[in-house]
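note to self — DONT lose this again. spent like an hour looking for the file last time. sequence + predicted structure for the chain T wanted, 224 res
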Amino acid sequence: MAVFEVVEKQGLKMIKATINNEMIRAEAGALHYMRGHVQMDVAAPTAGGILKAMASGESIVRPTYKGVGEVYFGPPHFGEYTMLDLANHQWIVDRGAYVCSDAGVDVTVWRNKALTGFLSGEGFWQTLIQGTGRAVIKSGGPLEAIDLNGDSLWVDGNFAVARTGNIEFSLKRASKGFFASAASGEGIVHCFTGTGRVLLSPVPNAWHNLVDAIVTSIPVSSSS
């Protein structure tokens, strides 16, 4: 399989994939640069893929890279990259979190329950990663792994970046009764139940926050 590693230059991180006659795939637009004898190909999308992309807003194509050399993926940022090792199982990750993976990893879409997707802030659609190999995802900060064994994890906010496919995601009231939930200041929380793993990003990278604050504070000029 390909070798994926995080490289850092001037505080910015990106992914370096070293391939030796292996094939990898990546999110459209993730390529930063490549060197060596590497061929990039883009397969024509299927009719089903086009319909899913139109419904979910996910990328309609994901380029593949094959040959001998190094491929660098980004975008370079101050956040974090995390490797997921798949052994014929599933991960559900936030939209936009997937970066690249071995060719044995299939990337498609996951549909949340209507009310859960609408009220949770996660949206109706997330990204489903499944198969065998290694996948790379990005986040605004370091990820904390929480392992569940038939129990539940309650999260106040959109801090869950990824979960294994056998974990059920729903919304719950923090306390019994509407008044108790409102009085506690917590209200509705995200609930993850089952046996598997949830990846949380509770403390975003300080550099990531700083850059985000600078960008969002830049005034947008309007033409008269």
